[in-house]
C-alpha cells in the first residue's frame, strides 16, 4: 500500500507539478491563494496527517530543517519533534520537542509499535533509504517519506475546529485548529500539544 501511495504521489507530482488535494477537490485554501499551495486537504473531514514513526532519530547529511516526525526511539516516551538546527529552543542535535515534555507510551495499553514494520530480525522490512514521494519538483536531495520541494509554495495542514472533533487520533497526528484560537496541534499518542503562531 505504501508503495502504491508513493508511486501515485510521485506520478501526480512529476507529471502535473501542481497542487494536490487529498480527500476531495476543493481543499481549504482560498481560491486567490491556490497558486501558493503544493498540498492541502479537503475541509470538514476532522482528520489529520500522521507523521512517520522513527525508531532511530535521524541525523547527518540529508536531514533538512523543517523535518517533523514522531520520535519512537524509546517507544515508552514518544514525542513529536521538529528539526530546526541553530534554533535556540533546539537540543544539541537540532531537534525541538513539540510535545512540550509530554511523553506517550506507544506500547501500552495499545501496542502501536507492533503495528509498525519491524526494522530488525527475520521479518524485518528493509526500506529503500532513497525512496520518497516528491511534490513540487522531479528530484530532491532531501531525505523523507514525503518531500515538499518548493521555495514559493507550502502545504496547508488538515483543519479542524477542535481536537475534540478528531475521533480516536493516532500517535503522531498533526492538525491545524481553525476555530477561535488558531493553533498547530500535535498528538504524541497520549496528549495534544498546541502551538500558537
Question: What is this structure, in a nutshell?
Answer:
With 197 residues, the protein is mainly beta. It has one helix spanning 2-16, and strands at 20-22, 37-41, 49-50, 53-54, 68-71, 79-83, 95-97, 133-135, 146-148, 154-155, 159-160, 173-177, 183-187, 192-195. Mean pLDDT is 87; it is low at 7-17.
How would you describe the overall organization of this protein?
This protein has 197 residues and is mostly beta strands. The chain has one domain (2-195). 8% of the residues lie in helices and 24% in strands. The chain contains one helix and 14 strands. It has one helix spanning 2-16; strands at residues 20-22, 37-41, 49-50, 53-54, 68-71, 79-83, 95-97, 133-135, 146-148, 154-155, 159-160, 173-177, 183-187, 192-195. The strands form four sheets. Strands 3, 11, 12, 13 and 14 form a five-stranded mixed sheet that branches. Strands 4-5-6-7 form a four-stranded mixed sheet, with no helix packed on it. The longest helix is centred in the N-terminal third of the chain and has 15 residues, at 2-16. The chain is globular, with a radius of gyration of 17 Å. It starts with a helix and ends with a strand. The relative contact order is 0.19. Mean pLDDT is 87; it is low at 7-17.
Amino acid at each position: 500500500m505504501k508503495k502504491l501511495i508513493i508511486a501515485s504521489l510521485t506520478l501526480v507530482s512529476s507529471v502535473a507539478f501542481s497542487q494536490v488535494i487529498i480527500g476531495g477537490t476543493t481543499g481549504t485554501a482560498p481560491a486567490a491563494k491556490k497558486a501558493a499551495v503544493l498540498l492541502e486537504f479537503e475541509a470538514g473531514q476532522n482528520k489529520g496527517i500522521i507523521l512517520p514513526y522513527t525508531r532511530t532519530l535521524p541525523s547527518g547529511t540529508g536531514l533538512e530543517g523543517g523535518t517533523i516526525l514522531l520520535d519512537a526511539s524509546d517507544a515508552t516516551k514518544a514525542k513529536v519533534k521538529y528539526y530546526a538546527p541553530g534554533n535556540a529552543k533546539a537540543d544539541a542535535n537540532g531537534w525541538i520537542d513539540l510535545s512540550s515534555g509530554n511523553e506517550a507510551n506507544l506500547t501500552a495499553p495499545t501496542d502501536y509499535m507492533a503495528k509498525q514494520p519491524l526494522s530488525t530480525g527475520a521479518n524485518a522490512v528493509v526500506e529503500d533509504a532513497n525512496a520518497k514521494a516528491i511534490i513540487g519538483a522531479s528530484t530532491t536531495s532531501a531525505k523523507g517519506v514525503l518531500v515538499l520541494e518548493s521555495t514559493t509554495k507550502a502545504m496547508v495542514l488538515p483543519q479542524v475546529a477542535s481536537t475534540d472533533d478528531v475521533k480516536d487520533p493516532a500517535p503522531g497526528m498533526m492538525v491545524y485548529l481553525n476555530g477561535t484560537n488558531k493553533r498547530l496541534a500535535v498528538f504524541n499518542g497520549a496528549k495534544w500539544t498546541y502551538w500558537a503562531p
